[in-house]
Amino acid sequence: MNLIKKNCQNFVFNGLLHQWNKNGFHSTQGYSFESLTSTWEINPVGRTRLLTQCRQLYTFSHASLVDNNPEWKARLAPLFSFITQNYFKSDRWIFSLDDKLTPLDEKSDAYALAFVLLSFSYYYQATRDEKALELIESTHLFLQEKMRSNKGGYYESFPIDSLSIRRQNPHMHLLEGYIAAYHATKSEPYKLALIELLSLAKTHFFDAETKSLREFFNSDWSYNLNTGHIIEPGHHFEWVWLLHQSYKIDADPEYLIMADALWEKATQYGLDPKGGVYNQIHAKTNQVLDKEKRIWPLTEYLKALCAHLEDGPNKVEQIKNAISFIFTHYLHRDGHWNEFLDADNKPKDHPLPGTSSYHIFLGLWEVIQWCQISMDRTNTLSHVNQPQI
């Protein structure tokens, strides 16, 4: 366990965060670049999204809370300032800027707002900046007043398009954001919002017949004819972790029943025997629809492993196997990573998205925490079992 912990810590703090901190931020304006090459050069893509900025703010805020490195904390205020000055327009958040940092897409996106909630919650805990709390509350009120659907959940974006395909994915991240907001503030409205999202998962996202997390819906939450059969094992694992986090706030046993079912589905049909997690499978037939493997589903599998399985030899073996695979096929010593593997586990040529460090950091951080808890428990038992002289 100690070796796994050290390898994960070294990659996260001395590799990933060090390199992005050095190469991934604008030197004077403080924002994160949208994309870098594998050699840490800027890769312009024509837009700079609120989502990317918030994921980086979350990652460096969380890192500053758990790692005694002043460089992480020094990154926070400039990034927070850039976000609030450039994306908050007319009392709402816009989606993206162009390469000249002028507004590009001015819709308010539910998925991005979820990361406002998440990142500002961690930023507040790291800095105690009261402005973050004010903006969390205004974001919450905007979601409740402008983006709620009378058929449940939230619309994809504002201005509203009531006929657009609806997805579980923004709601999953809104749940994550509200969990973080509740932990940061203990504010009851955020707890009520997360419970409502869990109720939506029970009634619409979770398909008990197939033990699946459905992804794509029509406006009335019926499955979309063209895409309703597509499910993502990575999202199953992400929900497993979130359901366990939710249970700590609202101890509804149905959350753990759902987590068991989603874990069973994703581990039985979503894990490639050659290693890694398939991108997509079919909800009913369990056929693999996309055999390629992005990095984030594997980091979500690590999170689910740490949270869901009872400790024991089987869990230890699965964590060891997953960590071995991610370090062999995805992670490089200098901190960069392979974003995609093909069906034969060969890396595809792809730049480094500024959004992926959020997944990598949190997945490996959950492993680091689990290793430490396991070692502490072993040391305690060893001490208790020492013969008395």
Strand portion: 5-15%
Largest sheet: 3 strands, antiparallel
Number of strands: 18
Overall average pLDDT: 96
Count of DSSP-assigned helices: 12
Distance between the termini: 30 Å
The secondary structure category is mainly alpha
Q: Helix and strand string, N-terminal first?
A: HEEHHEEEEEHHEEHHEEEEHHEEEHHEEH
Q: Identify low-pLDDT runs.
A: none
Level of helix content?
55-70%
Oligomer: single chain
Strand order of the largest sheet: 2-5-6
Q: What is the radius of gyration? A: 21 Å
Q: How would the global form be characterised?
A: globular
Set out the fold topology.
Layout: H1 2-23, E1 35-36, E2 48-49, H2 50-66, H3 70-87, E3 88-89, E4 92-93, E5 96-97, E6 103-105, E7 108-109, H4 110-127, H5 130-147, E8 157-158, E9 166-167, H6 169-185, H7 188-205, E10 206-207, E11 212-213, E12 216-217, E13 230-231, H8 233-249, H9 253-269, E14 280-282, E15 288-290, E16 293-294, H10 295-308, H11 313-329, E17 340-341, E18 352-353, H12 356-384
Antiparallel strand pairs: 1-18, 2-5, 3-4, 5-6, 7-8, 9-12, 10-11, 13-14, 14-15, 16-17
